[in-house]
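Justification of resources, computational component.

The compute hours requested in this renewal are based largely on the per-chain cost of generating structure records like the one below. Each record pairs the submitted sequence with a full structure-token output. That output is archived, and it is also reused by downstream analysis tasks.
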Amino acid sequence: MNKLVQARWCFLFPGQGSQRVGMGRDLYLKYHQPVAEIFETADDTLGFSISQICWNGPEEILRRTDITQPAIFLASYASYRVLVEHLPAPAVVAGHSLGEYTTLVAAGVLDWTDALRLVQRRGQLMAAINETTPGAMAVALGLAADAVERLCDAAIAATGEIVEVANYNESTQTVVSGTVAAVAEFLRLARPELPEGGKIKKLDVGAPFHCSLMSAVEAEFAAELETVEFRSPKTPVVVNVSGDFVTTGSEAREALRRQLAGSVRWTDTLARLVDFGAGTFVEIGPGKVLTGICRRSYPDMDCHSAADARRITALLDEYTLPNIA
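The structure output for this chain reads:
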């Protein structure tokens, strides 16, 4: 039986790492409009067939940072457009890293084609960093964030190079980013400190995201941000760099600039959303990473993944507004 939940809805949008070959194609087949128009417009906007890469790969192309970022944004935005016509309007929105761009579209801050162009440029600039200064990232599971910070400091002291916390995802899930040598030293130092059941591993990524190595392209990206109109949010937005709300377009623009080389403070972001009164979380876009984090961090919360057409249809069957055809 359909129902309309009374708790405040929160839409969450995933970041890089959630991509998969085939994403968006089931949406195109089941919800042809508006999905077909969105993918066609994206192809025209970017000047190449991002739709075909999303749907058919190959995987090695989809995994390229300059392709991955607009592809995830596009798949997430298409899912959002399907859902927003039927679900209660969200009371608040947030996105993880790249997902913040879809968030700002959902909040009325950015036009979606402007956000798509920004995401494309962001991916290109991030990929370029890895060509000049090869980097790496790793995730630590089971270690507290302060222990990870201490180990980063030790790795910096040992190598003279950069390794910093990139993502504070959960109380015991933290991602680090930096040069190849410094991340390797972090891994060496961290392994003996892992508790039983803990683990640490290098991530398969295309650049050292969310660390000071990205500062080299921050000015260029800031100039790109200035070419786009940022409006004040119509829906409250919590951003990564502060774990707090932005209330104006200029604050949202500044948050995106700082996010490039700044840490993703997802634990703070989720806490702020819960304090605000969010009661039903919906992760909109490929993957289920944020859904898993939400369930582990707040087991009593109502959490849903809208990662594909099947899950979207199930969600709409459970929670729908009255009088939907």
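Residues 42 and 50 are 7 Å apart (CA to CA). The two ends are 15 Å apart (CA to CA).
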